[in-house]
Model the fold of this input.
Amino acid sequence: QMQLVESGGGVAQPGRSLRLSCAASGFPFSTYGMHWVRQAPGKGLEWVAFIGYEESNKKYVDSVKGRFTISRDNSKNTLYVEMNSLTVEDTAVYFCATDGAHRDIDNWGQGTLVTVSS
Amino acid sequence: QSVLTQPPSVSAAPGETVTISCSGSSSNIGSNYVSWYQQLPGTAPKLLMYENNNRPSGIPDRFSGSKSGTSATLRITGLQTGDEADYYCGTWDNSLSAHWVFGGGTKLTVL
Done:
């Protein structure tokens, strides 16, 4: 069945970088758009970024534009987000998820925790 | 401050009915389908409703959705203790550059 497994989370100092990965299996990854969504501790969901099945289509929330880069390697069935110039406001659980056929976000990974702290 | 507005919390007794509202604007709900997500404590969100009022396989018909203009509503009938969770609405927003938006979330307490 469809599975998404995030990795790469951890503790980073403000201003540093971190790269998250999302390994996909059980579905034709190269034909799916993908999202990153985050959730700060005790807070609601915040959409972060989207990449189409063709890498040319990328979208970002304003707060990460210029700092985060979403990418994918269809040969490895893996989604990435490169996070630069991290701030404490980036502390959150980061979920990867598939873009659904019905203009929704339909399958979610379990998330990986990113903590930005000095 | 979320682009989509939801009540922070709702509560009801088992067996009762509850509604959760989601208010947006012409650039998001007014021109796109709304989906709803259920997040049980300590777990990842799960798609609960798509295209305003369609349930994915496995979602009981106690859950229903609707949309009118720039607002959407999730309705849960026959409440069960297992429904206690956070609920989020979401949709695409077409303003400036297209981006996805979520509501702030509603905590459902089953008394």
Chain B has a mean pLDDT of 96. Chain B touches chain A at residues 2, 32-33, 35, 37, 39, 43-47, 50-51, 54, 56, 86, 88, 90-92, 97-105 (CB under 8 Å). Residues 63 and 76 of chain B are 5 Å apart (CA to CA).
